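Bug report (template v2)

What were you trying to do?
Predict the complex of my protein with 1,3-dihydroxyacetonephosphate.

What happened?
Run completed; filing so the output is reviewed.

Input:
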Amino acid sequence: MIMKSAGELLEQKIRELKEQKKAVILAHNYQIPAIQDIADCLGDSLELSKISKQRPERLIVFCGVRFMAETAKILSPHKKVILPVREAGCPMADMISPDDIVALKKQHPDAWVVSYVNTSAEVKALSDVCCTSANAVSVVKNVPVKKIIFTPDRNLGWWVQKNVPEKEIVIWQGFCVTHEYFNVEDLRRVRSEYPDAEIMVHPECRREVLEEADVVLSTAGMLKAARASKARRIVVGTEEGLLYRLKKDNPEKEFFSLGAAKICVNMKRTRLEDLARALETEQEEIALDKDVIEKAARALERMLEYV
Ligand code: 13P
Ligand code: SF4
């Protein structure tokens, strides 16, 4: 008789519970490999929000951080959305509050508030439109106003301003505590040591890193670009979880992190044990105020209109 390991037994339990409860498991590209492997769908913020709406299952277990699970709930309020680890938050999302948005609107009454999805549901509800790293440039280009308040990421805001010079953008000074550690010295060192390598970075990196990289892309954008790239060696400036999938999808290419690997502790909180428990107990359920859901949904749906 073949004995199963503890990990295999846990995976089996997750599959059985998922089947029994008719649930779907969604996971962000930064999750640990074991979660990426067992998830039904893997993606960036934009892909996962679209998938959460399209999937027929009424129970969504979202392996990611709180704002992502909240986005799924906002877009599908009739579904039950579970975040396996309640403490899995995003420090960048905590850098802007609803009161900050109210004050900004008072200061700039003629501007539209464009909020990155890395925000709380309450902040989204006070925003005119949302964006993700994959569509921020087109959203800002296409909104029917000249003046924008962009929150909360100063680096994505700077990248958008560079690409949409015709708009006046007031940029909030939030940032990602993980991407902040990528630096231009590492980028220059990689360039001189591996001149043939392609350097892809996420727009949450600091502006001097964005300026010198070959391409600036969301995590899904990097996956697509890596498949199409002629380079055999690709250096990636984003959370190290993405490297697992990049290597899996492109075994003929080599992938390296830009400098030492950077880890988002919140993205790494969810383990197989947490996923099994979440399926069993259906906790922690995302609960949002009805009015917040309605207003935040308008900002998220507008995002899809303006891309
Ligand atoms: P993506 O939408 O590119 O996956 O980014 C989400 C995020 O939180 C990056 O830090
Ligand atoms: Fe938030 Fe940065 Fe982690 Fe993304 S990588 S979830 S922006 S802290």
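What did the reviewer find?
The domain at 6-88+268-288 is CATH 3.40.50.10800 (Rossmann fold). Residues 6-21 form the longest helix (16 residues).
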